[in-house]
Design a protein that fits this description.
By secondary structure, the protein is mainly α. The protein is 59% helix and 5% strand. The chain contains 39 helices and 8 strands. Helix 23 runs antiparallel to helix 25 and helix 30 runs antiparallel to helix 31. The radius of gyration is 33 Å and the shape is globular. The protein binds zinc ion (2 copies). One zinc ion binds next to helix 14.
Amino acid sequence: MGACCRMAFPSCLCSVRALTTTTLLCSRPVEGSVFMETPACPGLLSLLQCWVLPCWPPVTMGIPVFILAGLLVHFVFLASIFDIYFSSPLVHGMTPQQTPLPPPAKRLVLFVADGLRADSLFELNSNNTPQAPYLRAILENNGSWGISHTRVPTESRPGHVALIAGFYEDVSAVAKGWKENPVEFDSVFNESKYTWSWGSPDILPMFAKGATGDHVYTFCYTAESEDFGAQDATKLDTWVFDHVKSFFNSSRSNQTLFSALNEEKVVLFLHLLGIDTNGHAHRPYSKEYKENIRKVDEGVKEIVSMLESFYGNDGKTAYILTSDHGMTDWGSHGAGHPSETLTPLIAWGAGVNYPQKVTSQLFEDNFLKEWKLENLKRMDVNQADIAPLMASLIGVPFPLNSVGTLPLEYLNNSNHFKAESMFTNALQVLEQFKVKMSQKKRTTLSFLFTPFKPLSDSEQINFLKKARVYIQQQKYNEAVSLCKTLINLALEGLSYYHTYDRLFLGLSIALSFVGWTTYVILVIIKTHTNLIKATRNNNKESTGPLYGFTFVGMIIAFFLLIQTSPWTYYVYCLLPVPIWYAVVRELRVIQDPAANLWSFPIGQSLGFLLICILGIELLVFSFFYRSTLTVGLLVFAGWPVITQLWIQAKRTTLIWTLLCVLLAVFPLMPVVGREPNIPLVILKIRRWWKKRYNKMKLKCQVAAGLTTLLISCFSLASFSRSKNKYQSKEDLKVYFYQMFSIALSTYVVSSTHNSLKNKQGLPVFNQIISWTTLASSSALPLLSPTLLFQRLFSILLSLMATYLLLSTGYEALFPLVLSGLMLVWIQMEQEALQHYGLSLKPKLAVFNFAYATDITQFRQLHLDDIRRSFFFVFFIVTAFFGTGNIASVNSFDPASVYCFLTVFSPFIMGGLLLLKVVIPFLLVSCAFEAVQVTTQLSSKSLFLIVLVISDIMALHFFFLVKDYGSWLDIGTSISHYVLVMSLTIFMMLMNGLAQLLTTKRLELSRRTKHHST
Ligand SMILES: [Zn+2]
Ligand SMILES: [Zn+2]
């Protein structure tokens, strides 16, 4: 990518640097090529030649083609995961199944308290009074209760889909955005006669849109009302309660509405967003969150009594209260922590069991004791079981794609009814299995098809017959347990067919992966080392491999064709063919040097290989345990001592070691926005610590701002003391403006913090400053001189100002320490270069980015350059996990964007959080750019090594991807793979951006004097 960026500006191309990198990858025509003979050729020409020439007869590709191919290959790798693991499990074309017996209820009221944790609802207050007195009384006197276990991702949309449609939404839906429906699906609402719903515009429309016909009505407030800041979020809930009441009042004067409300199979859905909003803004242990629960409790009480009087206490109304997901102690959700996946479920009214007194219950957790509910039967369900429960209460068909099992314990009905309902449930799940199987059968060659044995056609008939007979003989319990077995088998079979192609697709992707990495390694060996002394001009290309590979490709394509596979399968299965073809061709070129390889000292090579493997393993481990980074950084601290570097540069070594150790502290700190998971026993200490921590946070930010200011004053002094006269007036102006904006940011952070604390909202003045700082920070470094340290420092100042505004605590200090280390790194690399006697030491102080391309010929790769690239990857990963920022993008901590906006807006918030993650990356990338130019290596060669390292890591994670175990395990393993994959692409982008930031210069006023040296 680096070279590509340079090529976009042909004026600076007529330099050795660009030329070497260009010719190096055009490989074949090295000796007799046009480039070497006419070094002064116009850039555009060489660009053109590179595009056209190399792809013609010669062997390897040109840079743009290589980059394009690399991007394409990685894109396929990335997309394949979504296709292999995240394809939609839904099938269509099933017949609806309904219990033949009359249902107990005529209507159902569903309350979903968004973001309500199970323990927050069930726990008693410190004075032994319940948090929600009305609901507590219900579960003690006339309802059933339990915990509903949700799956990951614990987000509102998947949660509601599981509740109302009965299936767990796959991640493909999440990837396609939560507001629209990626796939059509059936729901309890759709099956109902009428559904009226009140609540958030993010949730309701999704069930109205999917419904056939005009029978699902929604009443939403505006999106702007979801203010995370000063406003009172309980208003979102009172809005819903008030509107339900006035809706029923108005029906008394509206005859059509009145009769519709009195129909059977009616659903009323109240979506209560206040608790979620308050939880995000104030955390679940806050007064606001708890107060909101009390408000909801009161609201539910009022609605119930209103409905009972409206329907004249006919005893035909069933009520269910639950939530879509929980919330962590730090006010976020999305992941799989118990605080997020455990949600309350309380059901009462028509058809629902009364409380069952028990003497002892067996649960692994301690909740019953904590909540003082030991004597009331707790009935846990999976979130998707609630949909069949609702369907059976009002007697509508189970939603077609539901994978839930009817929780019979909740039903207050005859055994016959229970058995019939369970039978219907089994039929409905089996129906999906059958459709899925026939789909797979159709697209697989008959001799390759291996059916799901436990549920063959005859087995299915057996099961159903037996169950029917049991019901006829009134052996209801046997019928129920048989149906449960059938449901489990059908679900197993569903996932069997859903993952049918996984192994074979995975293998072909792995094959491409190995091929691609091998190819890149070959390119490095061929073009950037002196292993090949003379390129053999083998004009007699044998066409054997070409025909061979074409033949293999055709056979694969033929097989896919007769199986009528989707087009993506062609991409995955055919990709290895051209990649391995390229590898085979390259292999022929380096055949000779391969023989030479054995002349290297074996011991040394093996040791080096071992260190390489260890290093990559370390990086892989750091994805699971952040503290691994600490170990790595401590090893880095000792690096100059091990390699004897410290003898020649004692002072630099000392600073290096110090900064390494300092940076090693950050991975040990808790993830930003999260307090460590201390056991509940020391809850009080935790709360005390949290208070302390919250106070400390602001201090950290202010300290970071002040330190930056202090350092910039010092460096200004040292810059002006140094021999090259410090810049013109304009440069000084820019510098002072940057210092000023740091000071301003520090002020904005603390003033916003105080104003939000006093519930005064975000001052407009602060907001304006924040956005101005953000906008100016990308342009300002471009105005400063391109001298190495001055430019890097200017970049730091600008990014620091933005980062301060986006930080919430100690992480404000992170970029400061990181960039300190980066500056020393540049010097250390200089020393290392000298240590190995590779080049003369250019003066770093007068080094200029803009003329970096003018220095002498770039040298060949050395083994030490692999270490150099490894350092880069390691620092990038450190930037990634140093403060655990990536986690706060996932689990969304809105506190970090409070200086910019407080109204909920997912795109702007996401963008700002992304920016926060990118800033440390940019710092590392800019430093690496400096390392490249000062150590006289073409960015291309170093970058290729980086590519290999990250690709090996990605392959590692590809093998670690699981298709078994808990949903959480699967999700984590896949997200690791996606992270590493995007890391490669991301680093390419960062590299380009870093080059722009370091080399380009904008002139405020046209000056004739260009530079001061
Ligand atoms: Zn939610
Ligand atoms: Zn939420």
